[in-house]
């Protein structure tokens, strides 16, 4: 009997918790500035999954904390993203997830390399792109393998 009461109590708690979560994402409960940013979603807000609403609220919060320059950069990136084909967006999402699953040290190393690449002159970047593009598949694999080995050595040296 005690276990039955315990189960009933848990069910009531879960229902109450779920209702509280839904109310947190209720359109009327949003701050006016968040409503303004998300006004395009108002009509269908109640039909959106709770997870999607939470992500939209978090995005609106991040947006409101950005400087006008940061907002301009973000808007331009979003415009570029929207212009991509669905296949290209899916490919980029997959690559991003692979990146997020890498160890923090590897992510840091890749960010540093990308920063170094971005600091090269446009001509030098184009030369490197062309050079890599013209390599045979075997040479590309060998180069990537060599780069991974160098990265492992650098990571090992930093730890010791």
Description:
This protein has helices at 2-24, 32-37, 50-65, 68-83, 86-100, 104-118, 122-133, 137-159. It contains eight helices and no strands. The N and C termini lie far apart (60 Å). It has 160 residues and is mostly helical. The chain is 79% helix and 0% strand.
Structure described in brief:
With 160 residues, the chain is mostly helical. Helix content is 79%, strand content 0%. The protein has a domain at 120-160.
Look at the helices and sheets and give the structural class: mainly alpha
Radius of gyration: 24 Å
Percent of residues in beta strands: under 5%
Residue ranges: pLDDT <50 for 5 or more in a row? 1-11, 13-22
Query: What is the terminal-to-terminal distance?
Result: 60 Å
Run of helices and strands: HHHHHHHH
Share of helix among residues? over 70%
The protein's oligomeric status is single chain
Give the biggest beta sheet. none
* Arithmetic mean of pLDDT: 82
**Which of globular, elongated, flat, extended, rod-shaped describes the shape?**
elongated
Counted beta strands: 0
Number of helices: 8
């Amino acid at each position: 009997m005690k276990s039955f009461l315990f189960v009933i109590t848990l069910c009531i708690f879960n229902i109450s918790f779920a209702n509280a979560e839904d109310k947190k994402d209720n359109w009327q409960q949003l701050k006016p500035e968040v409503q303004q940013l998300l006004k395009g979603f108002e009509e269908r807000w109640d039909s959106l999954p709770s997870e999607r609403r939470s992500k939209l609220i978090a995005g609106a919060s991040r947006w409101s904390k950005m400087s006008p320059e940061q907002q301009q950069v973000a808007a331009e990136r979003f415009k570029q993203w929207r212009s991509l084909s669905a296949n290209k967006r899916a490919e980029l999402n997959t690559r991003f997830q692979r990146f997020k699953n890498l160890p923090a040290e590897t992510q840091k190393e890749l960010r540093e390399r990308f920063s170094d690449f971005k600091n090269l002159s446009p001509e030098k970047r184009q030369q490197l792109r062309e050079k890599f593009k013209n390599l045979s598949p075997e040479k590309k694999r060998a180069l990537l393998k060599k780069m991974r080995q160098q990265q492992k050595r650098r990571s090992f040296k930093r730890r010791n």
